[in-house]
Fold this sequence. Notes:
The protein is mainly α. About 60% of the residues lie in helices and about 5% in strands. The protein has a two-stranded antiparallel sheet with strand order 1-2. Strands 3-4 form a two-stranded antiparallel ribbon. Strand 1 and strand 2 (about 105-110) form a beta hairpin. The longest helix is centred in the N-terminal third of the chain and has 32 residues, at about 15-45. It is extended.
Amino acid sequence: MWLKVKDKFEVCSRLREHRFQAFVISIMQRLFRAWKARLSILYSKYSTNKERLSHQPEDVELEDWKYLIQYFGSPEFKRNPITGELDTPDKVWEIQHTRKDDRGKLAWLDSQSQQIHGQLQEVVVQQQSEEIEHPMTRDEILSSVVSERTGYVHGKGYGKKPRKRVTFSRKT
C-alpha cells in the first residue's frame, strides 16, 4: 500500500519522505483497526449466525464474512492471547482506564477509576474464593460495582445494553 501511495504523490526530500511514510502507515493502521472494530460491532448486533449472515457488509466478500463470523464467535477471540483465559472484570477495567506515563509505568486516568478497580478486585476475589453454586457473570460483577443508567452500562461503552430491570429483580 505504501508503494502505491508513494507512486501517486511526490515528496521533495528524503527526510520528508520518511516522515510521510510514517504518517501514511499510521493512518492505514488506524483505518484498519476502525474497520475491524466496525465489523466486530456489526457481528455483536445480532444474536444468531443466520442473522449475521443475512446482514453481510457491502465491503466484505461472503467467504470472508463467514470466516469472520466463526472467528468472532470462537473462544480464542474472546480470550487473552497470552494466557488463553478470559480476563476478569477488574483486569478489563484496568486495561481500559490506565495509560503508560513517561517512565512506562501504568497511571490511572482518574482517581474514581482506580477506586472502582479496587472494588472490582474485591468482588472478583470474593467470587473466586467462595464456592458459590451460581457465581456472578463478568457483566453482573461490573453492574454490582458501577452504576447503570437506562440504556447504558457504565464502563462498557454505548454498544452494551443493561439487562431489563424486571428480569434483574426476579433473579435477586
